[in-house]
Amino acid sequence: MFFGVSTLQSFHVLISFIGIVTGLIVLYGLIGSQKMSAMTAVFLVTTFVTTITGFFFPITVFTPAIGVGIISTVIMVVCFYARYGQRMAGRWRGVYVISAVISLYLNVFVLVVQLFLKVPALNALAPNGNEPPFAATQGAVLLFFLATGFLAWRRFNPNGPIFFGRVA
Predict the structure, then answer these.
(1) Quick one: how far is CA 92 from the chain centroid?
(2) Structural contact between residues 49 and 69, judged by C-beta atoms closer than 8 angstroms
């Protein structure tokens, strides 16, 4: 291991928060059809680093967190390819938007899980992670990302607004 667990954990949490905050800003930009190239790069890199550093924690058995990490890694690779490899051309625009929103959602999903595990007041409401308060919170998060993801998919056009079949 390259880091002690506490140093790794601190780095992982910090980079995760940066990924979530920049991701929410990028999501807002997507809905407003703004590329936000620098902010997007920070979001994608920090989210990818968050996912990868999750695999550096001691692993003894396969857990849901590892499953989320594997899924997130695949989605991130697709997202990077759509954004930078295909430059969001044609259908790759939609692939980029959807994969970016899913990447952000998975990061927030894990944040909610961690909050219910680590914050005593939340843990008291859902000590097993399958009680109604936890399910309701995760349901609200999912609905938020479905709604904003749909708006982003419909509105984001990296080439500017289209008028009468032409890019303005």
Answers:
(1) 18
(2) no
Tell me, what amino acid is at 8?
L
List, for residues 109-142, the tens digit of each pLDDT value.
999 999 999 999 999 999 999 999 999 999 999 9
Q: Give, for 19, the enclosing helix (H) or strand (E).
A: helix 5-31
Structure tokens at 91: 């259908």
Would you say 11 and 53 are in contact if contact means Cβ atoms under 8 Å apart? Answer: yes
Contact criterion met (CB below 8 Å) for 153 and 145: no
- How far, in Å, CA of 3 to CA of 147, rounded? 39
Count of structural domains, the chain: 1
CB of 72 closer than 8 Å to CB of 51: yes
Structure tokens at 45: 């890199």
pTM: 0.91
CA distance 76 to 139: 23
Residue 92 to residue 126: CA distance in whole angstroms: 40
Site of tokens 């506490």: 6
Q: Where are the beta strands (DSSP E) in 14-140?
A: none
